[in-house]
Amino acid sequence: MKKVIIISLGNKTGKSLYEQLKSILDEKIYVNFYSIENHIPENLECDLIIFSSDTVKDIIISKITINSKYIIARRIIKNQFIDELINIPTNQDVLVVNDKASTCEVAIQQLKSHGINHINYYPYYPGIEEYKKLEVAITPGEANIVPSCVKRIIDIGPRIMDITSIVEVLISLECINEYADRLSSYFFRNMIITSKRYINMANHANKVKEILEHIIDNSQDGIIYTNTNNEVLVFNKKAISLLKLNKENLISRNIYEVCPKLKGDIANINDKEVFIDRRPIYVEEILAGYMINISILENIQKIDEELRRKKKDSNLQAKYTFNDMIGSSSRNLKNINLAKKIANSNSTVLIQGESGTGKEILAQAIHNHSDRSKYPFVAINFAALSENLLESELFGYEEGAFTGAKKGGKVGLFKKAHKGTIFLDEIGDAPYHFQARLLRVIQEREITPVGATEITPIDVRIIAATNKNLLEEVEKNNFREDLFYRLNVMPISTLPLRDRKEDIEQLIRYYLMKNKVFISLDDFLEEETLKFFYEYNWPGNIRELINIVEYLINIREDEKIKIEDLPLYMQRNTISNKDLSKQTKILDKDTIWVLDKIYKYNRIGRRSLALIAEKENKDLGEGKIRTLLSNLQKESFIKINKGKKGTEILEKGIEMLKSQN
Description:
Helix content is 42%, strand content 18%. By secondary structure, the chain is an alpha/beta fold. The protein has 6 domains: 2-74 and 162-179, Rossmann fold; 82-156, Rossmann fold (3-Layer(aba) Sandwich), CATH 3.40.50; 219-299, PAS domain (Beta-Lactamase, 2-Layer Sandwich); 322-493, Rossmann fold (3-Layer(aba) Sandwich), CATH 3.40.50.300; 497-574, Helicase, Ruva Protein, domain 3 (Orthogonal Bundle), CATH 1.10.8; 579-660, Arc Repressor Mutant, subunit A. The strands form 8 sheets. The chain has a 5-stranded antiparallel β-sheet with strand order 12-11-15-14-13. Strands 17-20-23-16-24 form a 5-stranded parallel β-sheet. The chain has a 4-stranded parallel β-sheet with strand order 2-1-3-4. The longest helix is centred in the first third of the chain and has 29 residues, at 176-204. The two termini are 50 Å apart.
């Protein structure tokens, strides 16, 4: 017998989802539910886990090892509460109460999509600073957090799973065909029950009838309802406009005789590309007719573009926390502890590290651990923007500031990050002339949009990151020294994977689970392959490891991954250590340290090496470093260049470093 477990934040939600699922499934599938407010067993052995939300999933996975498949339910509002909502007087102000701002917005949008758009909605959630004091509140099962000013609570109950989540459950259990008929009956039965309720109410209240007519006539899509013989019974104004027909030529006529092109999915009707969706309507399991929805493809594309744009604009929240910094090596844990201390301050942070070591994940984790976590996290990548866009993107612009400026102007990223954190990624690529402007903003916490005369104060925390050695860039006059010291208040570095190889196994397990591959490491990789991973230098760091895991998941068949299954570039990038054994003995720890820094910060100068040594509490002054550099050059490990060209590592030096891993 297959087993399904539902896990929710509260008991009411879990019970609601349990009852919904049991009404579709039979006794062949065992269903149970747990809630976070009650006890959840540590051993959750089942075929599928259903989390009621992303929040619940994150809480559980942080505490319990999940070895089963899981999905996150997409949920909608139940229809049986529509009557009470429709009876609210037109234009009345009501609070919509939920656990946070985003879920309030979802609830409001779903109420409007149900046709309840004759009232004015105002969100309320715990922690909101200002809200309208109203006497009526609507809540999806969160009556316990309704504010005291409310006299009438309309509790529409916990949201239920939508059809896409139910289908995902059945697919995960590999029984979609077995339950297809039950699923169709369940959802169409709910649709018919709702339709009947609207019809009955319309017979007693003209107001409801007007609402329904208003909804159908104001739809952007053409809507036609026919009987089982395809004879037209009901249609809206948009359908008449798209088909360019008179009402008299449409009512009671066979729709496919009047417009044969509607038989397809996509058609060109009166020079417009349209998408046609035809669905059967059942009443008490008896086919009653068909609903035909005609959508203009251009409108669908515009809606899709607008949704993606709004999602991008609203996605100003950091999603990563310190729990996403996988690894239990001493160096990784030490780095996390340092980052947590840094997060508690409000000072500017400079993250330095190689590409692929998770600088943005660290930045987001610091933000989410700070007092600014409830406010925006805004990221900008200096390497991805052209010089002429930087100023307008960061500081915004006024309407008419330049040719092509958007009507109404544009809010800059610094202003969007107000009270939150702005992440200046790849700061080492910032144009030199722009650095002076950036320095002033960091010092004064004030911006002036392009084309504006008034100064706008901002309250932001700044986290900058780079894969370059900024001290070296300062020496080369590529980066302003004053900006470096303004940014370097709270310095922290990300660790290359070659310096924390003891985390490799844990990282592979994590990314296997993240890709929903529930298999032990012993069954996934041959022992020799895992040994190869420890010997490999990982120039692409964790990002490279993530890509390799994804690649191996996709190419793997029934056998364990062998070394020859790895990409050729990995195999060719590994060298034998046999020829270097004698050379290794002549290099002490200080010499290896110097060689490693030259490899990490190519063309670094003696002065910069001394500064890094001081920062890392190494007893290495410029004089001793000069001697070490001279010895390394004699052994052909490095080449010392004159002037600002600095010192570069040679192939022999790189091989020597690889032999140390």
